[in-house]
């Protein structure tokens, strides 16, 4: 084993654990609820620190009833600065989400200089200040972020604007200091959306308006606003940092470009929900503590299926805030992992042959009075509001499945989609046996036939386990289907295909837009059905529900989404099976997608085309980075290891034959290794030529060539490299192997 590998493994074994004391009051440890939100400048804190008229004006602004004037902004900025500085803040930053999949921030100090005349001479004083103007907007360089050609290189001006719905918070920094974070949107000089959040906020307003109109038609005039709620289950790997540092592919590409799975990985199914390793638990617990302080409500933590794979999941929140909190969670996990000498991997498929990671986005719609519109209740067949919203969602997914598929397309997620742990590239919706029966019964104008003879409970079906010491339990109305990209799971839809590495924002944007359009169509049909009546009758509602059930029936699938049979059936149904990223990106530019997004004001035509170009360009760049990294691994590591081992074998053969010993075993190994090394050398030469070819192309041609030729060439190189790893003596192998990375 190479000396670097040996040292890294020894460091992993000998490294002491990190301990962080949980805060206490006297002898009592603080409860989680007492820690939650301590570092958030939330509505409660604002009410306590602002004059009442200022807080009332701000509340009206958040509700969309008036604009935020400068005196109000100045007062809020002053209160936020005092609050933040009392907690150690020295800087503030407009924290935003450019189209990079992560976040961006530029720190500005509260420190400023003020001049005044003293005894006839000008003197300069240092003061701490933060104005309303500084709170409301800042100016990062708009040409230095992905913009898809909307901004030229010489047109640099862009603006970040405070998102008043998402509260400010502070994050601890070095030397006991902190920074005040101001959640913001990011736009170009002419108002073009250059970020993820601004379009998410647009889509949230559109789906709110469409849902409120439908509720009004049903006679509900109390609901003034609805929100989409979101909860993102975040999966990730945690590996030792010393071992990670010896893998250039993990450092640069985020995944292993070479390497054989170990003899034991996840086949025994013993890692899922198993005991969390103590070092990992220490890191996750510290991350949960930091998340709680900034108002991120982490609810669960557990081992995932693969070794060294884990998951944390939050309580549901309004979608735009949930996206903010998911990105905060990722950042906190990244930083805390460093403190524990661990490395967090968010790539969707960092290791070949074992499960990858997703970010299951649990999505629903809620009224301003707190009613979940996707709550079926125990009798969904008579819950007409639920049925109308449900069929609108099914209609949206059916009509815009290609567009929804485009939202989760990336070079990293492409390795995961369709594998054994991830939903396939065919978008379908799962409802479960009970709801499927309800819709079938409505379509066929017959009574609902319940699947189980046992009595219904308030939450579903009651199960009696026939164990006297255990109480009966309530069974949900629907089972779960982990092979479905878009599955109903009780009172929400779980968009399982979202990648662990990506921001959940754009998938939610496209889902919101598609559902808003279908809600409008359902509402139009309902208005036509009711005619002159004040509200639609039960017969009117059932007629509309039946119409949309029939129209969207092809998107519903209750079986195994991984099976070959489903691929054949989906094709017969006319459902698209979009396997490649370039083909998925093209869905953004179809006439139906453009009409949907532009007509509703979610994206302008130029913003939509910019999104396409950004995604395609990033895809090609990601693959080129991977290919260049792989080429370096082979030339600088794998082939030299093979050559060194070949020399040792050759020397051994010569020395043995000199003394009259037949070196047959060594010769066999040498011949096989020589053949594989030549094949790897040839494949690497082809890879280098393919890299040069893809680099010379542009636009669509580059993306398609990267997806086809470059990935194929990389797979060939990996096949021969992995074969050499299995043949070369371990002491010559320069890179940590999967066993060392995963265990």
From TrEMBL:
<dbReference type="InterPro" id="IPR008146">
    <property type="entry name" value="Gln_synth_cat_dom"/>
</dbReference>
<feature type="domain" description="GS catalytic">
    <location>
        <begin position="196"/>
        <end position="638"/>
    </location>
</feature>
<dbReference type="InterPro" id="IPR008147">
    <property type="entry name" value="Gln_synt_N"/>
</dbReference>
<dbReference type="Pfam" id="PF00120">
    <property type="entry name" value="Gln-synt_C"/>
</dbReference>
<dbReference type="InterPro" id="IPR040577">
    <property type="entry name" value="Gln-synt_C"/>
</dbReference>
<dbReference type="GO" id="GO:0006542">
    <property type="term" value="P:glutamine biosynthetic process"/>
</dbReference>
<dbReference type="InterPro" id="IPR027303">
    <property type="entry name" value="Gln_synth_gly_rich_site"/>
</dbReference>
<feature type="domain" description="GS beta-grasp">
    <location>
        <begin position="90"/>
        <end position="191"/>
    </location>
</feature>
<dbReference type="Pfam" id="PF12437">
    <property type="entry name" value="GSIII_N"/>
</dbReference>
<protein>
    <recommendedName>
        <fullName>Glutamine synthetase</fullName>
    </recommendedName>
</protein>
<dbReference type="InterPro" id="IPR022147">
    <property type="entry name" value="GSIII_N"/>
</dbReference>
<dbReference type="InterPro" id="IPR014746">
    <property type="entry name" value="Gln_synth/guanido_kin_cat_dom"/>
</dbReference>
<dbReference type="GO" id="GO:0004356">
    <property type="term" value="F:glutamine synthetase activity"/>
</dbReference>
<dbReference type="InterPro" id="IPR052725">
    <property type="entry name" value="GS_Type-3"/>
</dbReference>
<dbReference type="Pfam" id="PF18318">
    <property type="entry name" value="Gln-synt_C-ter"/>
</dbReference>
<comment type="similarity">
    <text>Belongs to the glutamine synthetase family.</text>
</comment>
